[in-house]
Amino acid sequence: MEEKSSTICVTGGAGYLGASLVKKLLQKGHTVRATLRNLDDHSKVGLLKSFPKANTNLRLFKADIYNPDEFDPTIQGCDFVFHVATPLQHSTQSSQYKNTTEAAVAALESIMRSCIRSGTVKRLIYTGTVVAASPLKEEEDGSGFKDSIDESCWTPLNLPIQYYGSQFFKDYVYSKTMSEKEVLKYTHRENNKVEVVSLCCGLVGGDTILSYIPASLSCLMSQPLNGPISYQNLESLQGILGKVPVIHINDVCEAHVFCMEQSSLQGRFFCASDFLTTKEIADYFCRHHPEIPIAEEFVGKHGSAVRWGSTKLNDLGFKYSYDAKLILEDSVQCLRRMGAFK
Ligand SMILES: NC(=O)c1ccc[n+]([C@@H]2O[C@H](COP(=O)([O-])OP(=O)(O)OC[C@H]3O[C@@H](n4cnc5c(N)ncnc54)[C@H](OP(=O)(O)O)[C@@H]3O)[C@@H](O)[C@H]2O)c1
């Protein structure tokens, strides 16, 4: 296990996962270089600079995926790189890339080149998502899930649009699937001294240190929040994965750090502590929070019989601290604190 203080790059350091990860790394005594697109964004910069030890151990860098070489100065001299940032909306000003997938893949290629050239980066840890690992069969005819979902699954990219519910979700799934395939190619490259880990996270909730409700927490809580668009995304997740894998923000950060602290690690790892249907999520709120009514159209669906087949992270010794009940309960408390429930 690596225990010394390291210099670590976190791309997308001001986002939901990124900010919590930066805070955790600082807490552990590391030096952090975080990227964001706009260093004049006072609310994002202010949050990062408010973290304990930020004044001495945190430096902020500007970098945009649409200008991939901008990540290079941040990466040179680092021991580890967490690539957390992802383009969620296509920048229409870009003539170089047609869509978010092209931009994300080009950024990964550039970031990997920087890691290799640095001569110091030991490992790149990519924040992937389970949406890139659908257990739907390749020869999809509308009814075919495999028996279980694990790290051998890859989302077939020929699914009809109705599986995604929206063009936004389809673009996200494409971009994350293609990016993860790109990054994992480097695990097979000869003479590549940079190890590559992809951590495919489930839907993240539980809490936030941001001043607004992040999109994934809105999605997880779309039923009690009565949010039609987020709820459509939640059902689409279940539509392509069979059920919804969930993970607490604190466990996500711990898992990222765990992957960094291993003396050697490569490959693809799922990161979710529970796998439940949208009906089970709604049932939890009905049973434990009858004061938060759920409208008829958000009561959820039964999902499929797909089993969670991944044990790779647990086999390495990682232990989740939050099961579904704790994730949902913390999410309720967090949204209550943020004034989302009357
Ligand atoms: N939350 C989840 O449930 C979940 C689950 C699985 C995987 N993930 C993955 O976790 C990562 C972070 O997601 P999140 O939930 O924390 O989302 P988020 O809060 O929306 O953060 C997205 C991050 O990406 C950055 N970003 C967006 N477009 C960019 C661009 N063109 N160039 C550079 N940076 C850009 C943003 O940076 P700015 O601050 O500059 O805007 C922000 O830091 C993503 O890779 C996502 O796929 C999330």
From TrEMBL:
InterPro entries: Epimerase_deHydtase (IPR001509), NAD(P)-bd_dom_sf (IPR036291), NAD(P)_dehydrat-like (IPR050425). Keywords: Oxidoreductase. GO terms for molecular function: oxidoreductase activity, acting on the CH-OH group of donors, NAD or NADP as acceptor. Residues 8-262 form the NAD-dependent epimerase/dehydratase domain. The keyword Nucleus does not apply. It comes from the Eukaryota. It holds the Pfam family Epimerase. This is NAD-dependent epimerase/dehydratase domain-containing protein. The lineage of its organism: Eukaryota, Viridiplantae, Streptophyta, Embryophyta, Tracheophyta.
